[in-house]
Amino acid sequence: MALKNSNPTKTEAWSALTNHFNNVQNSNIKDLYKDNNRQKDFSIQFDDLVVDFSKNRITKETINLLVNLAKEVDLKDAIEKQFNGEIINVTEGRAVLHTALRSNSDEPVLIDGKNIKPKIQSALRKIKSFSNKVISGKWKGYTGKSITDVVNIGIGGSDLGPDMVVESLQYYKNQLTTHFVSNVDGDHVSEIIKKLNPETTLFVIVSKTFTTQETISNAETIKNWFLKSATIFDIPKHFVAVSTNLEAVDSFGIDKNNVFPMWNWVGGRFSLWSAVGLSISLSVGFDNYRALLDGAEEMDLHYRNEDFENNIPVVLALLSIWYNNFYGAETEAVLPYSQYLKKLPDYLQQAIMESNGKGVDRNGDKIDYQTGTIVWGSTGTNMQHAFMQLVHQGTKLIPCDFIGFKESLYGLTDHHKKLMANYYGQMDALAFGKTKEEAHLELKFSGNEAKINQLLPFKVFEGNRPSNAILFDKLTPKSLGKLIALYEHKIYTQGILWNIYSYDQFGVELGKELAKKLLNKQ
Ligand code: F6P
Fold first, then answer.
1. What's the pLDDT tens digit per position in 328-339?
2. Mean pLDDT of 27-56
3. SS3 category, 370
4. Cα of 34 to ligand 1 centre, how many Å?
5. How far is the CA of 478 from the centre of ligand 1 (A)?
6. Residue-wise pLDDT tens digits, 350-386
7. Average pLDDT in the 175-198 region?
8. What's the gap in Å between 259 CA and the centre of ligand 1?
9. Test site for ligand 1: of 96, 153, 206, 209, most ligand atoms within 8 A of the Cβ
10. What residues contact 135, with CB distance under 8 A and at least 6 apart?
């Protein structure tokens, strides 16, 4: 059975939300905060994670009405269909089962009547045994030396996920140095090659299709460089591939024992949970990789089973729709207060914008309401000294997710106190601002009395700028898995509400085709 197909703006819930918006659009977070229970009422605790969404322009009624919208478009049924492996990626005729990749349950998931769980388990065993061999030094290069460097060659989902996770889990990393080559810009691959010794480097070519121009060009360049010092018989010791296209992998010259599987029921941007994550397992060890998957599975269960009111991905998706479709906000900022997560915004840009950047609904009709939020961001506190001016005092409404961790990994408590003071300080500043009166007093006491009238307008902070606090106890493989899965489910929820297909990406094709044509003309 297909996904329910309804224009959200024609639902009863949407009309109710529109009326509600007309009544509350001028409400102010500062006033709403006069309710002492607000923080408690607008927070969801889920094990080591608490999401505080009290600093939003919402009342309990807003949440109820948004939840009604989710119910009216039958989100529950859509979630079940995804987890059960129905063909919800209709335009490509595929199921969407990244959740099955991290599932620990024995419950079968069927594709064409066949349970896919055994295949997943066997791929995980292969990842584990290969990672163990390389990390322990038992896997030898062509001159008998152990591997010191791993190069992931891929782009888009075959690069951003593994790269972001390896960067984020640096603290848990082993002795191997991991590199990522993605851009077809030859200077990228050249800079990486410069750092490598062919005798001790392992290349992981990751491409679901194995036809992607960038990846194949980089892989060929690297193979040619490798063959300057080694022979084709040495390739099996240094090249492995992750792909669905076994023929192309074979003609590239990769040993069939060195091929890790990919499946067409896993979308590229949701694939780090498959063998696409091999470089993660090589970099932090299989146990940490498994913990990442376990954290994601915990979020899957929460998403699948929790009531919408207490369901973190659903609530965050609904809030995002509230700002995008009612307040007309165009962008959202993701602001991790951890330098480890500096690549998270880039990763989320693909996940979110390649998924929900659609202008045609599930009927194939042009949409006349806003979809796909633009997502961007950077780490705190660095971004406070960069773009936050615009978020605090600019003319645009930019809802922000502040991601934080109660504990730091190295335990420099003085630094962590400062970091977290900034984390909370920014959210308070955005929400509550600084009034004219407060700014006036400040100017008076800072010896600027003469210039008060001149400076006053520039010193005022309007406030009423929304944010969510997404706070974990600690950055671990498990909490990172949870965080990534949270955003994955937020994406799907929004796609369902906007009545679009989140799992295709035809919009990336035309540019590729034209580039190919231009190349052929040269
Ligand atoms: O740019 C489009 C895209 O298909 C992404 O969705 C995907 O992650 C990326 O290209 C890489 O594709 P592949 O893994 O097939 O090389």
1. 999 999 999 999
2. 98
3. coil
4. 49
5. 26
6. 999 999 999 999 999 999 999 999 999 999 999 999 9
7. 98
8. 18
9. 209
10. 174, 175, 176, 282, 285
CA of 215 from ligand 1 middle (Å) equals: 10
Residue 482, ligand 1, Cβ within 6 A:
no
- Kindly state the tokens that stand for 163: 């790269």
Residues 6+ apart with CB under 8 A from 153: 181, 182, 203, 204, 205, 206, 215, 218, 219, 222
Stretch 197-221: mean pLDDT: 97
Q: Give yes or no for residue 1 having a pLDDT over 70.
A: no
Instruction: Tell the residue nearest (CA) to atom 2 of ligand 1.
Output: 508
**Which residues neighbour 86 within 8 Å (Cβ) at sequence distance 6 or greater?**
1, 95
Helices and strands counted in the chain (H then E)? 23, 13
Average pLDDT over residues 492-518: 96
pLDDT digits (tens, 9 = 90+) for 290-301: 999 999 999 999
Residue 269 Cα to ligand 1 middle (Å): 8
Burial class (CB in 10 A: 0-12, 13-18, 19+), 186: exposed
Residue 522 has a pLDDT of 81
**Ligand 1: does its nearest atom lie under 6 Å from the Cβ of 215?**
yes
pTM for the full predicted model: 0.98
* Furthest-apart CA atoms within the chain: distance in Å: 81
Q: What is the pLDDT of residue 300?
A: 98
Measured between its terminal Cα atoms, the distance across the chain in Å is 48
At residue 447 the predicted structure's pLDDT band, cuts being 50, 70 and 90, is confident
**How far is the C-alpha of 431 from the C-alpha of 395, rounded, in Å?**
15
Ligand 1 closest atom vs CA 512: 1
From 356, 505, 506, 513, give the residue whose CB has the most ligand 1 atoms within 8 Å, as the site to mutate: 505
Q: Which ligand 1 atom lies nearest to the CA of residue 160?
A: 8
From the CA of 154, give the closest atom in ligand 1.
Answer: 16
Which amino acid does the sequence have at 336?
Answer: P
List, by residue number, the catalytic residues.
354, 385, 512
Of 298, 282, 388, 297, which Cα lies nearest the Cα of 335? 388
Pocket test for ligand 1, best of 91, 92, 182, 208 (most atoms within 8 A of CB): 208
Neighbour-count burial of 7, counting CB atoms closer than 10 A to its CB (0-12 exposed, 13-18 middle, 19+ buried): middle
Identify the structural domains of the chain with CATH numbers, from first to last: 8-72+306-432+465-508 (3.40.50.10490), 110-288 (3.40.50.10490)
Is residue 258 within 6 Å of ligand 1 at its C-beta?
A: no
Beta-ladder partners of 178: 150
Residue type, 503: Y
